[in-house]
Structures are given as structure tokens and as C-alpha cells.
Design brief:
Blueprint (H helix, E strand, L loop, with lengths): L1 H8 L1 H13 L14 H10 L4 H19 L11 H26 L19 H22 L19 H4 L2 H4 L1 H24 L8 H22 L7 E9 L4 H4 L2 H19 L5 E3 L13 H14 L2 E10 L11 E9 L5 E6 L38 E3 L4 E7 L6 H8 L5 E6 L9 H16 L3 E5 L5 E3 L5 E3 L11 E9 L6 H5 L2 H23 L1
Parallel strand pairs: 1-2, 2-3, 7-8, 8-9
Antiparallel strand pairs: 1-12, 3-4, 4-5, 6-7, 9-10, 10-11
Helix pairs in contact: 1-2, 2-3, 2-4, 3-4, 3-5, 3-9, 4-5, 5-6, 6-9, 6-17, 9-10, 14-15
Length: 538
């Protein structure tokens, strides 16, 4: 017990605090500069450990502090018992990636890089060694983010580069590398900064001793920003202005679970829509799960929705549940249910349907429910959705729009979004319901991810949310946030947004995907193989 107490009361506490610092780099706090410092501090704290196990532990505590702080909004889920379990379990799992990063980076650090050398002796490591180490640390981080986005359905919610979404000149590199290029630059700079501090200490504060360590990452950041500024200054050809009416009803999740109250809440959606239609928009957009019940199988509901579009002479895009018979079972009650979105034409015709493919674990389905049915006790859902099979673009022909549809948190997956854009899509629309999380940072963190999907694919992205953050993002990541009454982004209301839709060429990232990210994964695999061979030889 005394040993554990010593760990948690000294360097362990520091590691947790550094994780909290990194969390402050993300929305809502937006202290993005901390992302350039915190990873170096995490390495510095863990470098004092004598064993690899202890370094892994400090790295895990760093990740735990970061995730517990960033994901605090899980407490807002309006069910008993589950939120604290989900918060602790998800944070502990995600912290493993940070533990691996800290342990690996220190495992391959130049000899005695963190220790001062004796007077008159050469530095403990060479410049090329330190530069290579900083680059390799950045590649390892990106490789782990790539795995984080894919393993066990993936959860790339807090990708490091996302913290920089307001630095629009910097994030233009995402059109080549995805968000991972920004993460790489931040880590490269951070580890190089650590090298600079070490060199200053070793060289007794010799003037400009740090410059050699920082010149490469600083130069790379400046070049990327300069190219980003040039890119943003280019006026796109063939720009069309489309008038969107975005409805944000701000319906609490507990109301959505109550059938009687949800029908009354739906009247709020209709009322806001009627007010919005007075402005004569081209497209009316409702958020995820905006209607009570299955749209296609409820005649009264379907008639209400299609009449809204035909009387307003407007395209209507909305989120609603859907279902169909399960061909794998003769039981008529054992159907397949989907979280879907629908396109209704100005003539009131239901033209297209898109089913959500990326489902929320324990929110929309329970993994292993057939063999471990007790897991359902820990979730706020009674049944489960079936993932969709295809990405179905919505064509609004008279407006010249071919829109890719994203539901809920599908816009946090870079590799998923780019596949839809490849289908000649010139606009992205995200329908989401963040009513689960009250007025928390979850909405801002989610929207920050959306900014990168716009940049990566050079497509305007329109977000319509149940409560905060309804907005639209141009192809260069510049976000225009809707506010409803005295600047409150969480309140109910509607926003009329005149959104530019451009016919821009597809980006390198859209065409080729995570070439940069997979190169980093290859570097990680090569490193692991080298360490394994070295251990066998020794």
C-alpha cells in the first residue's frame, strides 16, 4: 500500500494533472496551445521512472486524466448507474493508447537524453538521434490514433489534431494527410520542445542552444500555415448559394423516450418549421430522430411530413427511425430497425432513405447480447438498431446538390466520410442528437471533428442538431455557428443559413485515404519488430 501511495502521490499525480492540461486544449475551453506542451510534459514526468512498467503506468495515468476530464459529459446521460460505469470504462480503455505511447517513446529515447552530462563531456545524444526520435514519437502517436479509429468499432472522438480546429491555416494540411497530419505536427513540435529544454540544461543555458532542436518542426509548421493561407485565399469557381432552414427543437432525451410527450414535442418541430418556411428556404433540415415512431409505417406521421414539404415547396431532409422484416427469422415481431434519414421532394414524394452505418456501442446496440444478455442491464436502450449497408447520397437535382448524409457521430470517422464523398458528393449534411449530454462540451467537441471532415474533402458541411451545435462549415474549416436567442447555442429555434456549395476537385485525402496514417502504422510495426528482434538477440 505504501508503494502505491507513493506512486499516486508524486509522479502519478503529476501525470494525471498533465492529462487534465491536455483536456483543456479541446472545446469548450479551447486552450489549443496546451496540446503543443502536454505530450512533452507527459514524457518528462514518466522519464523519472526506473522501470518500463512504472513508465507505462504513468502514461496510463496521463491518458486517464485526459479522458476522465474530456469525457465528463457522459455523466449527463439521463439514466441511472450506467453513466459512471461507461465514463470509467471508456476512459480507462482509451488511456491504454497513451500508456503505450509514453512507454514506447521512452523505450527508444536516445541514451540518457533526460540526464545532464558531466562538465566537459559531449552531449549524451547526437542531434540526428534526437530529431529522429522526435519524428518517430510523432509517427507512433498517429499510428495509435489510426488504431483507435478502427479497433472495436473505433472511437476517434479526441484525436489530438481536432484541438487545433480553430487554427484554419494550419489544418489545411488535412486535405493531404487527414487530421492525422495535424496530430503529427503537434507531437513533433512538442517532443522537439522537450529536446530543446534538455539541451539548454545540458549546455548550461548557452545562447541559442535550443534553436537546432526547434528549427525543423518550426519550419514545417510555418510552411504548412503559409500553404494553408494560400489555399484559403483561392476563390472557388462555380459557387452556388443555397438557403437552408435548420431546425433545432432542443428536446430532452427523457422526452424522446416517453411516447406521449414525444408526440407533443414533435409539434414543436412542426411549429418551428412553419416559422422557418415563411422565409422561403430551398432546403428544410430536421435533426436526427426528429419524428416519433417509424416514418414509413405511420400513415398520419408520413402524411404530416410530406404535406410540410409540398405546402412549403421545399426539399426536406429529416432523421427518423425505420424498419423492415428480418428475412433470417420467421418471427414477424423480430424485425430489423434502423436509425435513418429521409429525403422528401418539394412535391411531397419520399425519394430516398439512408441508414446509419456506424452505431453507438451500448447506445444503439449491445455487443455480444446474444451470448451475454446481462449486458443489456447496463444500457439505456431496450432493443437495438441494425447498421446500414451502403452510403446513399441524396440528390436534390433542381438545386444541383448531391449530398452525403452522416447521422449522429459518423462525422468523427475520417476514413468513413471520405468513402461517401467519392460518390460525386458536393455537400455533406450531418443530422445529430446531442440532447443526451445537456449543455456540455460534447457538442463542441463533436462539431470540431466536423470541421476536419470539411477540410479533408473540401466540401461544405451542414450540421443540424437537436440541441447545440447547429452550424455549417465551409470547405476550409471556417465554422458559422447558429445561435437562438441572446447567443445561446443550446436553445430551441431555427436558423436560416445561406450556404455556399462549390464544385471543387476531390482532394488527395478523398482519393487516396490515409496514406500518411498507414505510413505511420508501418513505422510502428517496424519499430515493434526491431524491438522484438533485439530482445530475442539479447
Amino acid at each position: 500500500m505504501a508503494r502505491l501511495k507513493a506512486i499516486f502521490c508524486s509522479r502519478g499525480t503529476l501525470a494525471l494533472l498533465v492529462g487534465v492540461l491536455l483536456a483543456l486544449a479541446f472545446p469548450k475551453v479551447h486552450l489549443a496551445v496546451l496540446a503543443w506542451i502536454a505530450p512533452a510534459l507527459a514524457l518528462l514526468v514518466a522519464s523519472g521512472a526506473e522501470t518500463g512498467k512504472r513508465r507505462f503506468l504513468y502514461g496510463w495515468l496521463f491518458g486517464l486524466g485526459f479522458n476522465l476530464t474530456s469525457l465528463y459529459w457522459l455523466w449527463f446521460i439521463p439514466v441511472t448507474f450506467f453513466p459512471i460505469l461507461g465514463w470509467l470504462a471508456l476512459s480507462a480503455w482509451q488511456a491504454l493508447y497513451y500508456a503505450i505511447w509514453v512507454w514506447l517513446c521512452l523505450r527508444i529515447a536516445p541514451v540518457d537524453v533526460f540526464k545532464p552530462v558531466e562538465q566537459g563531456k559531449a552531449l549524451a545524444s547526437g542531434w540526428f538521434q534526437r530529431v529522429f526520435w522526435a519524428l518517430l514519437c510523432a509517427a507512433i502517436w498517429v499510428a495509435l490514433e489510426m488504431i483507435m479509429a478502427r479497433l472495436l468499432t473505433g472511437f476517434p472522438w479526441l484525436t489530438l489534431g481536432v484541438s487545433q480546429y480553430r487554427m484554419t491555416a494550419l489544418i489545411q494540411v488535412a486535405s493531404l494527410t487527414g487530421v492525422y497530419g495535424v496530430s503529427f505536427l503537434v507531437i513533433w513540435f512538442s517532443v522537439s520542445l522537450l529536446n530543446a529544454l534538455v539541451i539548454i540544461r545540458q549546455r548550461q543555458m548557452r545562447l541559442w542552444a535550443w534553436l537546432a532542436e526547434m528549427i525543423l518542426p518550426l519550419g514545417a509548421v510555418l510552411i504548412v500555415c503559409a500553404m494553408g493561407i494560400i489555399s484559403m485565399s483561392t476563390k472557388p469557381p462555380g459557387e452556388k448559394l443555397i438557403k437552408f432552414a435548420l431546425i433545432q427543437p432542443s428536446i430532452p432525451q427523457t422526452v424522446k423516450w416517453d411516447a406521449a410527450k414525444n408526440k407533443v414535442a414533435f409539434e414543436k418541430v412542426l411549429h418551428l418549421s412553419r416559422l422557418a418556411l415563411e422565409t422561403k428556404p430551398d432546403v428544410l433540415v430536421w435533426p436526427e430522430a426528429a419524428t416519433p415512431g417509424l416514418l414509413r409505417y405511420n400513415e398520419e406521421l408520413l402524411r404530416t411530413v410530406t404535406r410540410m414539404a409540398s405546402e412549403g415547396k421545399v426539399w426536406l431532409i429529416l432523421g427518423a427511425d425505420d424498419g423492415e422484416a428480418n428475412q433470417a427469422t420467421p418471427d414477424p415481431d423480430d424485425g430489423l430497425y434502423y436509425n435513418s434519414s429521409f429525403l422528401v421532394s418539394p412535391t411531397g414524394e419520399l425519394l430516398a432513405k439512408h441508414d446509419k452505418q456506424k452505431l453507438v456501442v451500448f447506445g444503439e446496440y449491445v455487443p455480444f447480447a446474444d451470448v451475454l444478455p446481462f449486458l443489456k442491464w447496463f444500457t439505456p436502450i431496450e432493443g437495438g438498431f441494425t447498421p446500414g449497408k451502403d452510403q446513399t447520397p441524396f440528390e436534390l437535382k433542381e438545386l444541383g446538390i448531391r449530398s452525403g448524409i452522416l447521422i449522429c457521430f459518423e462525422d468523427i470517422f475520417p476514413h468513413f466520410v471520405r468513402l461517401g464523398v467519392k460518390e460525386d458528393v458536393n455537400l455533406l449534411i450531418n443530422l445529430t442528437n446531442n440532447g443526451w449530454f445537456g449543455e456540455s462540451a460534447a457538442q463542441w467537441q463533436h462539431a470540431a471533428n466536423a470541421a476536419f471532415r470539411a477540410v479533408e474533402n473540401r466540401r461544405t458541411l451542414v450540421r443540424c442538431s437537436n440541441n447545440g451545435l447547429t452550424c455549417w462549415v465551409d470547405p476550409w474549416g471556417r465554422m458559422t455557428v447558429s445561435s437562438f436567442g441572446e447567443g445561446d447555442v443550446y436553445r430551441e429555434g431555427f436558423d436560416i443559413a445561406t450556404v455556399p456549395v462549390q464544385e471543387l476537385p476531390t482532394t488527395f485525402y478523398t482519393r487516396h485515404g490515409d496514406v500518411f496514417g498507414w505510413a505511420c502504422v508501418s513505422a510502428l510495426l517496424a519499430l515493434v519488430m526491431a524491438l522484438w528482434r533485439g530482445r530475442n538477440k539479447s
